[in-house]
Amino acid sequence: MKIRKSTPEDIKQILSIYAYARSQMKRSGNPDQWKDHYPSLEIIEEDIRNGNSYVIEEQGTAEDQPEIAGVFAFICGDDPTYERIENGRWLNDEPYGTIHRIASSGKQKGVLRCCLSFCEAKAANIRIDTHNCNAIMQHLLESSGFWKCGQIYVADGSPRIAYQKKTRM
User: Fold this and answer.
1) pLDDT by residue (tens digit) across 6-54?
2) Residues pairing with 100 in the sheet
3) Which run of H or of E encompasses 164?
4) Which of 151, 115, 130 is nearest to 34 (CA)?
Protein backbone atom coordinates (compact mmCIF):
# COMPACT_ATOMS: atom_id res chain seq x y z
CA MET A 1 0.00 0.00 0.00
CA LYS A 2 1.06 3.56 -0.71
CA ILE A 3 0.07 6.81 1.00
CA ARG A 4 -0.31 10.12 -0.78
CA LYS A 5 -2.04 13.45 -0.12
CA SER A 6 -5.69 13.49 -1.10
CA THR A 7 -6.83 15.63 -4.03
CA PRO A 8 -10.24 17.03 -4.95
CA GLU A 9 -10.47 14.27 -7.57
CA ASP A 10 -10.50 11.72 -4.71
CA ILE A 11 -13.58 13.17 -2.99
CA LYS A 12 -16.13 10.80 -4.57
CA GLN A 13 -14.17 7.73 -3.42
CA ILE A 14 -13.49 9.30 0.00
CA LEU A 15 -17.22 9.93 0.53
CA SER A 16 -17.93 6.32 -0.43
CA ILE A 17 -15.33 5.04 2.06
CA TYR A 18 -16.79 7.15 4.86
CA ALA A 19 -20.32 5.90 4.04
CA TYR A 20 -19.04 2.32 4.22
CA ALA A 21 -17.26 3.03 7.53
CA ARG A 22 -20.42 4.53 9.05
CA SER A 23 -22.43 1.45 8.07
CA GLN A 24 -19.78 -0.86 9.53
CA MET A 25 -19.73 1.09 12.79
CA LYS A 26 -23.50 0.80 13.07
CA ARG A 27 -23.34 -2.96 12.39
CA SER A 28 -20.70 -3.43 15.07
CA GLY A 29 -22.66 -1.63 17.81
CA ASN A 30 -21.28 1.87 17.34
CA PRO A 31 -24.12 3.88 15.74
CA ASP A 32 -23.33 7.25 17.33
CA GLN A 33 -19.67 8.01 16.65
CA TRP A 34 -20.08 9.47 13.16
CA LYS A 35 -23.89 9.73 12.87
CA ASP A 36 -25.26 9.87 9.32
CA HIS A 37 -23.21 12.53 7.57
CA TYR A 38 -19.88 12.80 9.35
CA PRO A 39 -17.40 13.72 8.12
CA SER A 40 -19.18 16.25 5.96
CA LEU A 41 -18.10 17.25 2.47
CA GLU A 42 -16.99 20.60 3.92
CA ILE A 43 -14.69 18.89 6.46
CA ILE A 44 -13.20 16.66 3.75
CA GLU A 45 -12.61 19.63 1.45
CA GLU A 46 -11.02 21.61 4.30
CA ASP A 47 -8.70 18.69 5.15
CA ILE A 48 -7.62 18.55 1.49
CA ARG A 49 -7.15 22.34 1.23
CA ASN A 50 -5.05 22.36 4.41
CA GLY A 51 -2.88 19.48 3.20
CA ASN A 52 -3.96 17.23 6.07
CA SER A 53 -5.91 14.59 4.14
CA TYR A 54 -4.25 11.40 2.96
CA VAL A 55 -5.39 8.36 1.02
CA ILE A 56 -3.99 4.87 1.20
CA GLU A 57 -3.89 3.21 -2.18
CA GLU A 58 -3.84 -0.47 -2.97
CA GLN A 59 -1.16 -1.44 -5.44
CA GLY A 60 -2.91 -2.07 -8.76
CA THR A 61 -1.61 -4.05 -11.70
CA ALA A 62 0.26 -2.28 -14.50
CA GLU A 63 -2.95 -1.53 -16.41
CA ASP A 64 -5.10 -0.75 -13.36
CA GLN A 65 -5.33 2.54 -11.57
CA PRO A 66 -4.66 2.10 -7.84
CA GLU A 67 -7.86 1.95 -5.79
CA ILE A 68 -8.20 3.93 -2.58
CA ALA A 69 -8.30 1.51 0.35
CA GLY A 70 -8.40 4.06 3.16
CA VAL A 71 -8.43 7.71 4.13
CA PHE A 72 -7.33 9.72 7.17
CA ALA A 73 -6.41 13.20 8.31
CA PHE A 74 -3.07 13.75 10.02
CA ILE A 75 -2.50 17.11 11.68
CA CYS A 76 0.72 18.10 13.43
CA GLY A 77 0.48 20.68 16.20
CA ASP A 78 -1.80 21.42 19.10
CA ASP A 79 -5.36 20.18 18.69
CA PRO A 80 -7.98 22.21 20.61
CA THR A 81 -9.99 19.02 21.18
CA TYR A 82 -7.11 17.66 23.27
CA GLU A 83 -6.51 20.70 25.46
CA ARG A 84 -8.64 19.30 28.27
CA ILE A 85 -8.43 15.66 29.33
CA GLU A 86 -10.40 14.10 32.18
CA ASN A 87 -9.95 10.91 34.21
CA GLY A 88 -6.30 10.64 33.28
CA ARG A 89 -3.49 12.56 31.62
CA TRP A 90 -1.39 12.59 28.48
CA LEU A 91 1.88 10.65 28.48
CA ASN A 92 3.74 13.95 27.98
CA ASP A 93 3.24 17.54 26.84
CA GLU A 94 5.66 17.30 23.93
CA PRO A 95 4.68 18.16 20.33
CA TYR A 96 2.38 15.63 18.68
CA GLY A 97 0.48 14.73 15.57
CA THR A 98 -3.19 13.76 15.64
CA ILE A 99 -4.92 11.17 13.49
CA HIS A 100 -8.55 11.99 12.71
CA ARG A 101 -11.25 10.45 10.54
CA ILE A 102 -9.47 7.22 9.62
CA ALA A 103 -11.61 4.85 7.57
CA SER A 104 -11.17 1.83 5.36
CA SER A 105 -12.99 0.68 2.23
CA GLY A 106 -13.13 -2.80 3.78
CA LYS A 107 -11.42 -4.28 0.72
CA GLN A 108 -7.86 -4.32 2.05
CA LYS A 109 -6.46 -5.40 5.42
CA GLY A 110 -3.76 -3.39 7.15
CA VAL A 111 -5.06 0.14 6.50
CA LEU A 112 -4.64 1.25 10.12
CA ARG A 113 -1.19 -0.33 10.35
CA CYS A 114 -0.13 1.48 7.16
CA CYS A 115 -1.50 4.80 8.48
CA LEU A 116 0.24 4.39 11.84
CA SER A 117 3.58 3.57 10.22
CA PHE A 118 3.31 6.71 8.07
CA CYS A 119 2.34 8.97 10.99
CA GLU A 120 4.91 7.51 13.39
CA ALA A 121 7.65 8.42 10.91
CA LYS A 122 6.49 12.05 11.02
CA ALA A 123 5.88 12.67 14.75
CA ALA A 124 7.47 11.55 18.01
CA ASN A 125 4.04 11.48 19.67
CA ILE A 126 0.74 10.45 18.12
CA ARG A 127 -2.68 11.15 19.61
CA ILE A 128 -5.99 9.71 18.48
CA ASP A 129 -9.43 9.23 20.00
CA THR A 130 -12.40 6.95 19.52
CA HIS A 131 -15.93 6.46 20.77
CA ASN A 132 -16.59 4.32 23.84
CA CYS A 133 -18.69 1.97 21.67
CA ASN A 134 -15.94 1.49 19.08
CA ALA A 135 -14.50 -1.68 20.59
CA ILE A 136 -12.80 -2.63 17.33
CA MET A 137 -10.76 0.58 17.17
CA GLN A 138 -9.95 0.41 20.88
CA HIS A 139 -8.54 -3.09 20.41
CA LEU A 140 -6.57 -2.10 17.31
CA LEU A 141 -5.05 0.95 19.01
CA GLU A 142 -4.12 -0.89 22.19
CA SER A 143 -2.58 -3.76 20.23
CA SER A 144 -0.59 -1.15 18.26
CA GLY A 145 1.08 0.26 21.37
CA PHE A 146 -1.25 3.15 22.18
CA TRP A 147 -1.99 3.99 25.80
CA LYS A 148 -5.46 4.91 26.99
CA CYS A 149 -4.90 8.33 28.58
CA GLY A 150 -8.36 9.54 29.62
CA GLN A 151 -11.44 11.17 28.17
CA ILE A 152 -11.76 14.18 25.87
CA TYR A 153 -14.78 15.85 24.30
CA VAL A 154 -15.22 16.51 20.58
CA ALA A 155 -16.80 19.64 19.07
CA ASP A 156 -20.40 18.46 19.61
CA GLY A 157 -19.65 17.81 23.30
CA SER A 158 -19.70 14.02 23.13
CA PRO A 159 -16.98 12.11 25.00
CA ARG A 160 -14.19 10.10 23.39
CA ILE A 161 -11.49 7.82 24.75
CA ALA A 162 -8.14 9.54 24.21
CA TYR A 163 -5.02 7.57 23.28
CA GLN A 164 -1.37 8.46 22.85
CA LYS A 165 1.72 6.66 21.64
CA LYS A 166 5.32 7.80 22.00
CA THR A 167 7.05 6.73 18.81
CA ARG A 168 10.57 7.86 19.72
CA MET A 169 12.32 8.38 23.01
Assistant:
1) 999 999 999 999 999 999 988 888 777 887 788 999 999 999 999 999 9
2) 73
3) strand 159-166
4) 130
